[in-house]
Each structure stands twice: as structure tokens, then as C-alpha cells.
Amino acid sequence: MNQIAMKQIADYLEHGYLVLEGFVEEAQCLAVRGRAEAIVEEFDFGGDISVFSTTEQSHAQDEYFLTSAYAVRCFLENGVDIGKLGEGEVPAVNKIGHALHDLDPVFERFSYTPELIGLLEELGYEKPAFIQSMYIFKSPGLGGEVVPHCDHSFLWTEPQSVCALWFAVDDATCENGCLWVQPGGHRQPPKTRFRLEGAGTVTDVLDESPYDRDAFVPVEVPRGTLVVMHGQMPHYSEHNYSPLPRHAYTLHAIDTACEYLSDNWLQRGDTLRLIA
Ligand code: FE2
Q: Containing H/E element for 30?
């Protein structure tokens, strides 16, 4: 069964992104939404207080991030001081990462569907794998901005093969921090590369010119929409100043027929699961 028409593939190649409304059912969205909230409820924030310190960008913080490649782990909003929380208070979580799709059965069911696998085939993936997943909360009043970037910078393959599969778990609007993309911007090379160096990470600046914010357009979409983004597509989202949540789930697919660089921050080794 075709997931998308030839015209949509042409649009994707031309503009670098594709909006597929109604790709998933509301019930599927509510299932992952409920599961994400339960993961936060059950998460032990007590053991890693130093990890979340805003004053120390410490080795412990790097370690917590780097070892989340094959884990289900909560990351807090910037500025949250876990030491100041009251008894039983759940801190503001920015996201859960980075192997929900392989380690949590609810997310696994949402991720490995015939529809999504078919879509990747139609986009030309030879040996696809989901390298990472994230559940992003973008909570009312708290959800921070994500500055312009492209995902290739973080999950580098030669040649570039990463694409983002971004699911609107809630309606996403300009008010609650929807995605903004730069149509056609996927033809520019990445401006940065984030990679491992020693026990930590560095960002190489490849092009110092700033992104042209005027060239971006908002992607306002209802719950259940899938936004597919080319790995070189510049995108960002703003702080959620609205009273409405903007939950989203993203999967990043790569083609394992391409070379996945050994100094990418995220290394799955033998745990990486081929889709087909
Ligand atoms: Fe991104």
C-alpha cells in the first residue's frame, strides 16, 4: 500500500519536508501521551541531582546524556533546580530520550508500524533504522525554545541520510511552539557538527553565518500529523508561552547502507535494530 503519492515525494525532495495530516489516529497519540506522562511519574529524579545542576555543565551531565543512547531517560527544562523542588513535586521535563522506540512497548508499537516502514521505503531508504527517539513536552509556559539547527549536525552519515519523523501528539500552533522550517533550506550544508571528543562533546562551526529567520515558515498542524523533515532542513521552535501543551514525538531514521560516523554522540553499536 502506498503511504504517499509520487507528487508528495517530489514535494519532499523539492522543499525538504512533508506534512501528512492524519497519519496516526488520535488513540495512538493518546497512548504515547499517557505513557510519556507515566514514565515521568515513575522516574527517579533523586539519584542524579548533580546531573541536573544548571551551574555545572559537568562531566556527570555529559555522561548522563551520552549514556542515554540506549535508555529511557528524562531531561529537564533549562534552569530547573531539582534541589529546590518540594516533597513529591515532579520537575518540569523537557524531553524523554533516546531509545523509547526500542525499550518501551507502547512507543515500540507506535514506531514500528507498516505505514511508517512503507513510507521510508517510498522515500528510498535501503536499510533503514530508527537511530533515536524523543518525546518532547513543550509544557505550557515552561517549554523552552529550540534554536535553529539541522539534524544532520547531530546524526551524521556519509552520505547524509537522516530524516526526522515528527508526530504532533497535540495540536501545534504558533502560540504553543510549533515547528518552523526553511522551505528549500535542506540544500544548504550544515552550519555545525556536534560530535564526541574525548569523554565529552564539541560543536564544530562549519559556517558562521546566521540562519535567516525571515526565510522560515510555521508548520501549524493538528494532532495526528506526521511532519517528515530532511536531515539538512533547518528548523526551530519557540518557547511555549501559551496555556496549552504541545507534546510531540520524534523518531530519527538513518539508512544503515550509509556510513554512520564513529564520533557521532549517539552510538548504538550492536543494539541498533534494522527495520526490514
Ligand atoms: Fe531537530
A: helix 26-42
Is residue 269 included in any domain, yes or no?
no
Residue 10 falls within a domain, yes or no?
yes
Using alpha carbons, select from 274, 268, 245 the residue that is nearest to residue 36. 245
Cell of residue 21, nine digits: 495530516
Interval between CA 235 and ligand 1 midpoint (Å)? 7
Domain membership of residue 239 (yes or no) is yes
Task: Calculate how far, in angstroms, residue 231's C-alpha sits from the geometric centre of ligand 1.
Answer: 8
Answer yes or no: are the C-beta atoms of 12 and 18 closer than 8 Å.
yes
State the distance from the centre of ligand 1 to the C-alpha of 186, rounded, in angstroms.
13
Q: Is the dihedral of CA 121, 70, 230, 189 positive or negative?
A: negative
Does residue 11 lie in a domain region? yes
**CA 76, CA 265: separation in Å to the nearest integer?**
19
**116 sits in which H/E element:** helix 114-122
The pTM assigned to this predicted structure is 0.94
Residues with CB under 5 A from ligand 1 (ion): 151
Number of separate domains in the chain: 1
Q: Measure 164 CA to ligand 1 centroid, in angstroms.
A: 7
CATH number at residue 159: 2.60.120.620
At 15 the three-state DSSP class reads helix
| Residue 200 lies in domain | 6-260
- pLDDT per residue, tens digit, the chain (276 aa), is 577 888 999 999 999 999 999 999 999 999 999 999 999 999 888 765 444 444 455 666 778 889 999 999 998 888 777 777 777 777 889 999 999 999 999 999 999 999 999 999 999 999 999 999 999 999 999 898 999 999 999 999 999 999 999 999 999 999 999 999 999 999 999 999 999 998 889 999 999 999 999 999 999 999 999 999 999 999 999 999 999 999 999 999 999 999 999 999 999 999 999 997
